Amino acid sequence: NAGVTQTPKFQVLKTGQSMTLQCAQDMNHEYMSWYRQDPGMGLRLIHYSVGAGITDQGEVPNGYNVSRSTTEDFPLRLLSAAPSQTSVYFCASSEQAPRAPLHFGNGTRLTVT
Amino acid sequence: GDSVTQMEGPVTLSEEAFLTINCTYTATGYPSLFWYVQYPGEGLQLLLKATKADDKGSNKGFEATYRKETTSFHLEKGSVQVSDSAVYFCACGATNKLIFGTGTLLAVQP
């Protein structure tokens, strides 16, 4: 059982470039979310989705877009990367957040130069 | 808004010592509370949870009790091992969001 799969594992971007971080889950979870992890800041919620076609903003949504066209996939788009977006990004899914536990992917380490 | 405050680390202990990591939360309603653990280079894994007041979550020798009167969910373990070295995150789930604390690094020395 693959669980939550994130690609790529590592990425280096130049300021102003765009890219999409991929996230897929095979557990038929309705809830999916994106977090960023920074030293001393813990995990901060970027965007989340409670089902296909439904997305909403978290604590730090600026500079990021999401869409949810299928239950399985929840990509995170950076339209114009900035050095402040250098971070480790985690995708997570759940049967019914927030009361059910989150299942996390292994993360994408992004560096913006 | 909802928030979680947990003690800053790093916490350094000798093997077999007693562990406490403090966590308090602010949330409306009746949130669920969680402890997650992150080992180096990995994503977070659920350690334990509690969904209502006075519930005690437990797993792998770790325990935490949901205290609504003090809005706390402190993590404890009676005898830590080197393999417990990791970052521990307290989290609070209310509405549609799971909010995390800043994490506490635990280092256990043999």
What does this structure look like?
Chain A is mostly beta strands and 113 residues long. Helices cover 0% and strands 51% of the residues of chain A. Chain A contains no helices and eleven strands. In chain A, the strands form two sheets. In chain A, strands 2, 4, 5, 6, 9, 10 and 11 form a seven-stranded mixed β-sheet that branches. Chain A is globular, with a radius of gyration of 13 Å. In chain A, 39% of the residues are buried. The mean pLDDT of chain A is 94. Chain B has 110 residues and is an all-beta fold. Chain B is 0% helix and 54% strand. Chain B has no helices and twelve strands. In chain B, the strands form three sheets. In chain B, strands 2, 5, 6, 10, 11 and 12 form a six-stranded mixed β-sheet that branches. The radius of gyration of chain B is 13 Å and the shape is globular. Chain B starts with a strand and ends with a strand.
Low-confidence stretches of chain B: none
- What profile does the largest beta sheet of chain B have? 6 strands, mixed
Number of helices of chain A: 0
| Head-to-tail CA distance between termini of chain A | 36 Å
Q: What is the share of helical residues of chain A?
A: under 10%
The average pLDDT value of chain B, as a whole number, equals 93
Name the structural class of chain B: mainly beta
What percent strand of chain A? over 45%
